[in-house]
Specification:
about 325 residues; alpha/beta; Rossmann fold; 2 domains; 7-stranded mixed beta sheet; about 40% helix; binds adenosine-5'-diphosphate; binds 6-O-phosphono-beta-D-fructofuranose; PFKA_ATP_prok; kinase; 6-phosphofructokinase activity; identical protein binding
Length: about 325
């Protein structure tokens, strides 16, 4: 192996830059050449490749977003489009591609590996929705952003003795809501994994809290289960308590990565190059029980969701 390329794909996440830096620096240290690909699979198809050296990744460890830009590229699902991508990589002499993204991006990487390009995936998404790894790059930073917002909303919610519903991202995964809810001391946490969410039970809990002297009710709602404004209307009508909704939105995707995300990204990025150098392909890198691991992409994508029911139960007990 002589030359590798790297791209970021899907939604960006804080810490992607730290991961790019780790891959580039480890690869160069190991005697490899590195090319950056701009704008994910879309940029690859447009031939947006450029040579990177050690200085290409200077001064980026602290920056949110991704210096390589990112994109969603629906046409990459077509075999003939991926064949063209593989030909472009071969034309540039690239032997292997490191893809930083979520499960969709990994699927693209896996299919590309069948066309003679070695591929490795690094988990970059705020959603923490990849079952094979305990944490994804960006999750910790997003979590801290959400907790900061909850603290602020708590102040005004207490002053007005209101119910506040805070909608957070996560797609179909409730990890941001669960971890932010427990860290922010929320009264209720509503996640897509709760198949039996009952709006009336939530209203009963709110009224119980009020009758026991609670000054406010903070409810963390994961986007995957419904809209905050609709729920706020229902709660206000039933309980008679003033209720406000806040949708945190893309603020959760930005900002300087936390120390924890920087360390994670650095460890995962270094391991990706090691795994490539050992000749392996179609692997994803992750962290389990604080150990950096690699796993076959197919196996990783087939793993069942790892929603932490014990933590959810603890959050319920602590909020009563
Ligand atoms: P994420 O990687 O964060 O899950 P997406 O699901 O949007 O984000 O996927 C990112 C990109 O990965 C897509 O725009 C597409 O280019 C590629 N991709 C997703 N699913 C597939 C698939 N089934 N086959 C090939 N490429 C895919
Ligand atoms: O996957 C990351 C994520 O931020 C999800 O939490 C959210 O549902 C989605 O991306 C938003 O995507 P977009 O930035 O395309 O609106």
């Amino acid at each position: 192996m002589k030359k590798i390329a790297i791209l970021t794909s899907g939604g960006d996440a804080p810490g992607m830059n730290a991961a790019i830096r780790a891959v580039v620096r480890t690869a160069i240290y190991s005697g490899l050449e590195v090319m950056g690909v701009q704008r994910g699979y879309s940029g690859l198809l447009n031939g947006e490749l450029f040579a990177m050296d050690k200085t290409s990744v200077s001064d980026i460890i602290q920056r949110g977003g991704t210096i390589l830009r990112t994109a969603r590229c629906p046409e990459f699902k077509k075999e003939e489009v991926r064949q063209r991508a593989a030909k472009i990589l071969k034309a540039y002499g690239v032997d292997a591609l490191v893809v930083i993204g979520g499960d969709g991006s990994f699927m693209g990487a896996k299919l590309l590996s069948k066309l003679g390009i070695k591929t490795i995936g690094l988990p970059g998404t705020i959603d923490n929705d990849l079952a094979y790894t305990d944490f994804t790059i960006g999750f910790d930073t997003a979590l801290n952003t959400v907790v900061d917002a909850i603290n602020k909303i708590r102040d005004t919610s207490t002053s007005h003795e209101r119910v506040s519903i805070i909608e957070v991202m996560g797609r179909d995964c409730g990890d941001i809501a669960l971890h932010a809810g427990i860290s922010g001391g929320a009264e209720s946490i509503i996640v897509p994994e709760m198949k039996d969410f009952d709006k009336d039970a939530l209203c009963r809990t709110i009224l119980d809290g009020k009758n026991h002297g609670k000054m406010h009710n903070l409810i963390i709602l994961s986007e995957g289960i419904g809209g905050a404004f609709e729920l706020a209307k229902y709660v206000e009508e039933l309980t008679g308590i003033e209720t406000r909704a806040t949708v945190l939105g893309h603020i959760q995707r930005g900002g300087s990565p936390s120390a924890s995300d920087r360390v994670l990204a650095s460890r995962l990025g270094a391991k990706a190059v090691e795994v490539l150098l050992s000749g392996e392909t179609s692997k994803v890198i992750g962290i389990r029980d604080n150990k950096i691991i690699d796993q076959d992409i197919d196996e990783a994508l087939a793993m069942e969701s790892k929603f932490d029911e014990d933590l959810y139960r603890v959050a319920e007990i602590l909020s009563r």
